[in-house]
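[INFO] parsing input record for YlqD family protein
[DEBUG] input buffer:
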Amino acid sequence: MLTIFRSVQVKIIMTEASRAALVEQYAKQIRQHRDGWEQWQFQTKKILAEARKKSADTYALAQEKIAKEEKQRREKIEILQFQLKQAENLPEGSEMDYQTVQSPVTVQIGDVWDEIMAGTEILIKDGQVHEIRHRTSDQR
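[DEBUG] output buffer:
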C-alpha cells in the first residue's frame, strides 16, 4: 500500500456573487502583474547595462533571459485576461475551471490505475463545496 498525490480539478459554479468575486480577483491580479511588469522593465535596463560592461556573451545571455521572462509575464497576464472575460460572460449555473489541487490517494496491488487517476472534481458554489464528483475511467 502506498499513498500518492493526484490532481483534483476545482470548478466554480457561476452565480452573481461568485462572478463579482472572480471579476474582482482577476482584475486585482492583472493590476498586480502589470505593476510587477513595470518594475521588472526598470530592472532590466540596469541588468542590461551591467551585462554590456562585462562582455558581449554576458549581454546576449542577459537579453535571452529577459526575453524569456518577458514572454512568461505576458502569457500570465493573457491567461488572467481570458479568465476575467470568462468570468464576466459565463451564464449563471455554468461551471468554470478555477484551480487544481493535490489530493492524497492510497494505491494497492490490484487497484485499477485508470480508476484511481480518473478525474475527481470539486464544485464550489458561493464559496462552499457544493459537490464532489468521482469519475470512473468509463465516464471520460
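[INFO] The first strand starts at residue 2 and ends at 13.
[INFO] shutting down worker
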